[in-house]
Amino acid sequence: MMVRLDQMNSEEFQKYLSFAIKYFADEQIKSGNWKLEEAISKATVEYEKLLPEGQDTENNHLFTIRDGSKEVGMIWLAQITNEKGFIYGLNIWEGNQGKGYGKKTMQEIEVLAKKFGLKSIGLHVFAHNNIARDLYEKLGYKEKNIKMEKTL
Question: Which ranges carry the N-acetyltransferase domain (predicted)?
Answer without folding.
Answer: 3-152
